[in-house]
Amino acid sequence: MNSRWIDIKTEQGETFSGYLSLPPAGTGPAIVLVQEIWGVNEHIRAVADQYALSGYVVLAPDVFWRLQPRLDLNYDDAGNAIAFDLYGKIDTDKATQDIAASIATLRKLPEVTGKVATLGYCLGGQLAYRGAVAGHADAAVAYYGGGIDKHLDIVNQVNMPILFHYAMKDAHITQDIVNTVKAAFAGKSNATFIDYPETGHGFNCWGRTAVYNQRAAALAQAHTLEFLSTHL
Fold first, then answer.
1. Is the C-alpha dihedral spanning 91, 8, 229, 211 positive or negative?
2. How far apart are the C-alpha atoms of 73 and 83, rounded to whole Å?
3. How does pLDDT run across 74-122, given as a tens digit for each residue?
4. Helical (H) or strand (E) element with 85
5. Residue 37: partners with Cβ closer than 8 Å, 6 or more residues away
6. How far apart are the C-alpha atoms of 42 and 156, rounded to whole Å?
7. pTM higher than 0.70, yes or no?
8. Do 192 and 231 meet the contact criterion of CB atoms below 8 Å apart?
9. For an engineered disulfide with 140, which of 53, 54, 162, 174 has Cβ 3.0 to 4.6 Å away?
10. What total number of domains does the chain contain?
């Protein structure tokens, strides 16, 4: 893969980093890929490469940089302890602005020749949703976004196409929470919801063997690629 770490500047002039993966053609539309709580780790970098192979310029920003830069955790007891500790400390308002800064960075890159979407998982799903509004993204995708139900005050600002993936056996994001989000978007033609039966939270992550669901992950990726090819 043609990949490297690049600098991203905030509106305050601070600098943090992100993993950039380029498509084989070298140019294309772009995705801000927002991590789970384990950092821009091997899994997230592989997902970035996966979408790059589909023709997208993909930037995975380091959203935990204020707490622990370049976090790269394994899915084991030690990694989980650090991940959940940092999850409890992150300022999601500032992280949302970091996603907006990442969108702005992509728009300035010569390799980006099309529109820009956000795409995120769990915490990253929330940040993809909020960051799309803050950074005026052209589309957004949220996989089992944790905490979206607490930020429904921005629903009327979500004017871009948005795709929500939800697991119907999610112990963290229950069906009551999902129904609350769906109700908030009722009547908005730009929002699409896809539910995955018999799947749990984190079903896209092959590094988490206890929750990974190959069939659901493949189906969700297919839906996501169709969505992105339509709107980018």
1. negative
2. 8
3. 999 999 999 999 999 999 999 999 999 999 999 999 999 999 999 999 9
4. helix 77-87
5. 83, 84, 86, 87, 122, 123
6. 36
7. yes
8. no
9. 162
10. 1
Query: What confidence tens digit (pLDDT) does each residue in 127-139 have?
Result: 999 999 999 999 9
Q: From CA 196, how far away is CA 217, in angstroms rounded? A: 9
Evaluate whether 103 touches 18 at the Cβ level (below 8 Å). Answer: no
Residue 75: half-sphere exposure toward Cβ, Cα within 13 Å: 15
Q: What is the span of the domain harbouring residue 64?
A: 2-231
Q: Measured in Å, how far apart are the chain's first and last C-alpha atoms? A: 22
Which residue is listed with tokens 């999902």? 178
Give the CA angle between residues 213, 219, 223 to the nearest 5°. 140
Give the Cα separation of 111 and 25 in Å (integer): 10
Question: So what's the pLDDT on residue 62?
Answer: 98
CATH of the domain at 87: 3.40.50.1820
Is the Cβ–Cβ distance between 40 and 65 less than 8 Å?
no
Percentage of the chain with pLDDT > 90?
A: 100
Do the beta carbons of residue 116 and residue 138 sit within 8 Å?
yes
Are 140 and 129 contacting, i.e. CB atoms less than 8 angstroms apart?
A: yes
